[in-house]
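REVIEWER CHECKLIST
Item 1: Sequence provided? yes
Item 2: Single chain? yes
Item 3: Sequence as submitted:
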Amino acid sequence: LCLSCCSVFRFILLTGALSLPAENCSGYRTCGQCLEQPGCGWCTDPSNTGRGQCIEGSYRGPFQTAVPAPSTLPGPTSSPASQPALNISMCPSDTKYNWSFIHCPACQCNGHSQCVNHSVCEKCEELTTGRHCESCISGYYGDPTNGGSCQRESLGMNMGQGLEVRG
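Item 4: Structure as written out by the authors:
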């Protein structure tokens, strides 16, 4: 989808003209990936490093899916579909968490640097590099997005073989 199409679609969701069932948003590791998905929002933690969590929700806040209790009435045992309900305690602004549904926060350092001037990663740490501390430094591998880690490459990995290093 093009970006303008996504914006129009999100507007339709915001106005309530279309309602989609909540999907599992928790698998998205960055705010950008999260907000591309209809029905997902980003809860940024208070660390000022860009870390956060992708959660089902709307412009009003995160949703928690309430599963109805099984019916005790006689008859078919099919239960009604679970209903999403607004639950702002999942991203509490009073403890400096921030809910984003349309635009990502300016600070996007993936948990590996503090932001200066609200959007610039001051110094990537924990073996990361890149404008948003989104890559591992040379000689290391991994997925450092959203607080992930980097590990040292072994000699065998560099050569494409399973060599054992002896000292």
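Item 5: Key structural point noted by reviewer: The chain has three helices and eleven strands.
Item 6: Recommendation: ____
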